[in-house]
Amino acid sequence: MTTNTKENFGELLLDKKIVTALTDMGFEEPSPIQRETIPFVLEGNDVIGQAQTGTGKTAAFGIPIIQNIADSRHIQALIMTPTRELAIQVAEEVGKIGRTSRIKALPVYGGQPIDRQIRALKSGVQIVIGTPGRLLDHLHRGTIKLDGIRFLVVDEADEMLDMGFIEDMEEIMKNLPVERQTLLFSATMPRPILSLTKKYMKAPKVVAIHKEVVTAPSVDQFYYETKDKVDGLSRLLDVEINGKLIIFCRTKKGVDELVIALGTRGYLAEGLHGDLSQNQRDRVMKKFRAGRVDILIATDVAARGLDIENITHVVNFDIPQDPESYVHRIGRTGRAGNKGVALTFITPREFRQLKLIERAVNIKIIRRQLPTDANVLEKQREIIVSKLQSVLDQNNYGEYLSIISTLTKDYSVEDVAAAAVKLMQEGSKALEISSETRVMPSDFTNTGARPGMVRMFMNIGRSQKITVKDIIQTIAIEADIPGKVIGTINIYDKFTFVEIPEDVAEKVLAVMHKNTIKGYKVNVEPARARD
Ligand code: ADP
Ligand code: MG
To answer: Positive or negative, the Cα torsion across 349, 353, 354, 359?
Structure first.
């Protein structure tokens, strides 16, 4: 519908070049925040724009800035973002909008060699996007010249505040030419932000887009009432949830604990919160974006502003504290015409809070029952059946047929097949006769370990700078076994999986119990299965 595009963005009196770039980006019409702020910026006003995450705030300032940038190669706009991740994201989006106008946008952030940035700056960019710290650094070095700056943008201002950047922001603002436009965008407007705007903005136009615009009708919303949320979540992961999800917790500690709780149950999840270094955040986001982990566990603050595609489910592991944050969270899914699902856990005492959210947002969150043991079993059966079907369809298991004909001399075909499925499903547990051992054999089944090996879970990982060598050495010495018998070791941020030969598993568990690796106390336990 290109004609429509032209009409709509055309109504905003944009250059043809910019409209072409927007069409290439797949934008069909301006979003509400864009429709309202772009004319104000083009007329030369300062603007305060408030709208939820995912409503297109980047283009709301990016489009009019690009349109007003002069055809010269000096820096004319400075955009401050709270994190490096966002600086990169904003630079990408602004770069795309400016592509046809040949306007260059460069992200600068800590952690990247400053020399390289200085060279890139010299090559001629008109828009610089960065975290306040690194921007200040460049200002002090004189590698970013302020006199040509005509636009300052404070993006995700509320998060900037949460991250303690207010002084850096002020220092930058104080040093900019007075003849400039200041644009401030935020999902929420806490008081300190407002006082900042009073101090540094000139008669700003205020545009606030309210939440009903965001409550995506394409998000199905359900809630579950349970006292054991981890168990409930595991059941959902086994039976219902099949896709890419963000799980929200109320606190950083909650995030860490849930990463570990899911890890011990065999689900791979990554946590995201304010205590992580920028590098750690980048790594987590990269993995999640690339689909190497499907579960991201985050606090509201850490997830704010991040634009991640194809989220199929949002899980409120902890019920959000206010209706606004509920809307924010669920707005992460159901984007771009896809259907999303939002699942909220409540404990019996949180029922009133749920009703409060329903009323404030004017939606109905439907009650649902958690999958039962029978559902979980049923799902496992379905998985077994579909795995077997796909092997049968490939029809390339001829080498095993002679085993079957040997066995069918003494057993029926049904019995042989059932035994084979049991072995496939339960692994070594299927071979156990007695279970009088301290280590419950059922704990050792089906955890992805190779035959003859069991997988162990340890509650330390990369965060403690643990290496494969540390683990092998400690276990080998403590359990008095040769290091080379230890199998695959997977080290994650907060935990590690180690394969140990079955016959020494118990011994390793016994000696490692309450032991230390590199001075860190470890807890070692058998890993549990995902499917
Ligand atoms: P916010 O800053 O409000 O959280 P973003 O600027 O990150 O939102 O935009 C969210 C997503 O929506 C991005 O992928 C962006 O490319 C897309 N987007 C923005 N404006 C439009 C539009 N007018 N039409 C279609 N998609 C858009
Ligand atoms: Mg944004």
So the answer is: positive
Q: Name the residue type at position 214.
A: V
Which listed ligand is nearest to 86 at the C-alpha?
2
DSSP 40-96: HHHTT--EEEE--TTS-HHHHHHHHHHHH--SSSS--EEEE-SSHHHHHHHHHHHHH
How distant, in Å, are the alpha carbons of 214, 316, 353, 362 from that of 320?
A: 17, 7, 9, 16
**Can you tell me whether residue 438 is helix, strand or coil?**
coil
Q: How far apart are CA 158 and CA 49, in angstroms?
A: 12
Closest CA to 500 of 472, 519, 528: 472
Tell me the CA distances in angstroms from 203 to 45, 49, 77, 191, 508, one per residue in order.
8, 14, 20, 17, 69
Q: How far is CA 100 from CA 88, 97, 126, in A?
A: 20, 7, 14
Q: Which ligand is nearest to the CA of 57?
A: 1
Ligand 1: atom nearest CA of 33 is 3
**pLDDT digits 0-9 by tens, 151-186:** 999 999 988 988 889 999 999 999 999 999 999 999
Cβ of 58 closer than 6 Å to ligand 1, yes or no, is yes
> Which tens digit of pLDDT belongs to each residue from 67-126?
999 888 899 999 999 988 899 999 999 999 999 999 999 999 887 888 888 888 888 899
Only one residue has tokens 């890139």, namely 120
Is there an atom of ligand 1 within 6 Å of 57 CB? yes
Is the distance from the beta carbon of residue 55 to the nearest atom of ligand 1 less than 6 Å?
A: yes
What is the per-residue pLDDT across 410-431, written as a single tens digit (0 to 9) for each? 888 998 999 998 888 777 777 7
Q: By the 8 A CB rule, do 54 and 328 touch?
A: no
Coil, strand or helix at 336: coil
Vertex 234: Cα angle to 233 and 235 (nearest 5): 90
Q: Minimal CA–CA distance to 498: which of 531, 465, 466, 530?
A: 466
The model carries a pTM of 0.50
Q: What CA–CA distance (Å, rounded) separates 298 from 252?
A: 8
Rounded Cα distance between 112 and 87, Å, is: 13
Query: In one letter, which amino acid is 159?
Result: E
Q: Name residue 71's amino acid.
A: D
Atom of ligand 1 nearest to the CA of 185: 2
Question: Distance between CA atoms of 383 and 397, rounded to whole angstroms?
Answer: 19
User: Across the strands, what pairs with 524?
Assistant: 458
Pocket test residue of 24, 31, 97 for ligand 1, highest count of atoms within 8 A of CB:
31
Q: How many CA atoms lie within 13 A of 105 on its CB side?
A: 28
Q: Is 59 in the pocket of ligand 1 (CB under 6 A)?
A: yes
Distance 132 CA to ligand 2 centre (A): 16
